[in-house]
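Subgroup meeting minutes
Present: P.N., E.W., G.H.
Scribe: E.W.

1. P.N. recapped why we're keeping a running log of single-chain structure predictions: easier to compare across weeks, and new members can see raw inputs and outputs side by side.
2. G.H. added today's entry (125 aa).
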Amino acid sequence: MKQDTAANPADTDTLRQLNEDFVRSVQLSDVRRFEEILADDFLNSNPDGSLVDRAGFLAQIARPAAISNLEAHDVRVRIMGDIAIIHARTTYKKPDGQAGAGRYTDVWARRKGQWLCVSAHVTRG
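Output recorded in log:
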């Protein structure tokens, strides 16, 4: 993992783990984990261009994932005080078995000592 900004190694490790949890929770439709790591004011930009709030995102996650073998690559964590931005490339298998790829950018904020995801933007090819 490449880190752009000098930061507390514990924060970097925490954010790396949260990123892995986020990706795994998408694949496993793990609403419970998302309830723990998403801020109340979370917003997500979907690949189709729609914008959903936390409740809308959790409803999307509750449905079984249409893609499989989701993996993050080239993960970059940038920490700027109490804000962190994570960029990554994704690969996955589409429902028809073909390979798919995309990118995401997640914004995390440290609130009351806990990192919470406040924003996500997802693209798929």
